[in-house]
Amino acid sequence: MGLKGFGLIKLVLLLSLLLSACSTEPDQKDQSNSQASQCSQEEIAGGAAWITGQLNAFGSAEPSAAYNFASEQFRQGVSLDNFVAIISGQYSALLTLKSFEIGRCVALDDGYVFQVDLIDNQNKSFTMQYVLSKIDGQWGVDAATIVENKVDPTL
């Protein structure tokens, strides 16, 4: 076998090792080095209050009420008009929520991710991930994404 063939075999073996490493469960010691951790009670309370404020503001006739809960960074990149278009086009269920429950929180190096379970007025339930930041003591919503949709026929 020539040198080219040997180099190809080494490359294939290296890729196999990398792929197999990605597919296994992390060891306990690897999890301690993770950039994610559980939120403190203070972080949970502060973030949950901020999310609750925005979700309640979506019921307001004034779009700026919900927009004001967005982070400064978000508002620099998305105008109020664009925010209204995004909410009414892609997240219209937020305008007619029946109920919501704020679930787990994960603290990251640069913010917090909250799971929020919601039910709209047509009993359609969905889960969102809210990404929040806290800069100089000020909470802000950086992003919110629907991660799961389902219809709950028992409601």
Overview of the structural elements:
There is one protein chain. With 155 residues, the protein is α+β, with helices and mostly antiparallel strands. The protein has a single domain, classed as Nuclear Transport Factor 2, Chain: A, CATH 3.10.450. The protein is 41% helix and 32% strand. A five-stranded antiparallel beta sheet has the order 1-2-3-4-5. The protein is globular. The N and C termini lie far apart (68 Å).
Can you summarize this structure?
Helices cover 41% and strands 32% of the residues.
State the domain count: 1
Structural class by helix and strand composition: alpha+beta
Count of β-strands: 5
- The ordered string of helix (H) and strand (E) elements is HHEHHHHEEEE
Oligomer: single chain
Q: What is the mean predicted local confidence, pLDDT?
A: 79
And the CATH topology? Answer: Nuclear Transport Factor 2, Chain: A
Shape: globular
Rg over C-alpha atoms, rounded to the nearest angstrom: 21 Å
CATH architecture: Roll
